[in-house]
Amino acid sequence: MTTANIMLYVKDVQANADFWKHYLDFKEVDRFDFGDSISIVLAVNPACNLQLFNIDFIRKNSPEVVDNKPSLLFDISDFDGLYARFKENNETVGEIIEMGGARTFNFPDRNGDYYAVRETAE
User: Fold this and answer.
1) Where are the domains of the chain?
2) What's residue 122's pLDDT?
3) What are the start-end ranges of the H helices in the chain?
4) What is the average pLDDT score of the chain?
5) Position 24 pLDDT exceeds 70
6) Which of 30, 37, 64, 98 has the CA that lies 20 to 30 A from 78?
7) d(Cα 44, Cα 109) in Å, to the nearest integer?
8) 119 Cβ partners below 8 Å, 6+ apart?
9) What is the pLDDT of residue 2?
10) Has residue 121 got a pLDDT over 90?
11) How far apart are CA 27 and CA 44, in angstroms?
12) Which residues neighbour 90 within 8 Å (Cβ) at sequence distance 6 or greater?
């Protein structure tokens, strides 16, 4: 295996891609046009991508997986900077808590799905 691709099913592919690019600096590496829908692939790191699909497209083509939602935890070195960016932009963000010796917080994307980040050393 060379790359893990995590598929997220969202209402607005472009708005969610913009969110991930703005806050976590994910880079767009591919884009697919399905006629009535698009899919955007964002590089999380060299070994992991997020691929965003329109939820209605998935409901039509793969209804058995449409309700699947991953629980994702991202390790972040600029933890305080990311938290500050969320707060400065009046985004919903959870309180910083310590778990197992590391600081964490959670946040929702543009689809309202929650994700977590954990502080890591640089």
Assistant:
1) 4-119
2) 65
3) 13-24, 55-61, 79-88
4) 96
5) yes
6) 30
7) 15
8) 75, 76, 77, 79, 102, 103, 104
9) 86
10) no
11) 7
12) none
Take residue 104 and report the two structure tokens written for it. Answer: 């964490």
Q: Residue for token digits 């999380």?
A: 44
In the chain, the amino acid numbered 95 is E
Q: Do 107 and 117 form a contact (C-beta atoms < 8 A)? A: yes
Q: What is the CATH number of domain 4-119?
A: 3.10.180.10
CB 113 within 8 A of CB 9: no
Is the separation of the CB atoms in 74 and 24 below 8 Å?
yes
Burial of 58 (0-12, 13-18, 19+ CB in 10 A): buried
Residue of 110, 45, 46, 102 whose CA lies nearest to 79: 102
Residue whose structure tokens are 């790359």 = 3
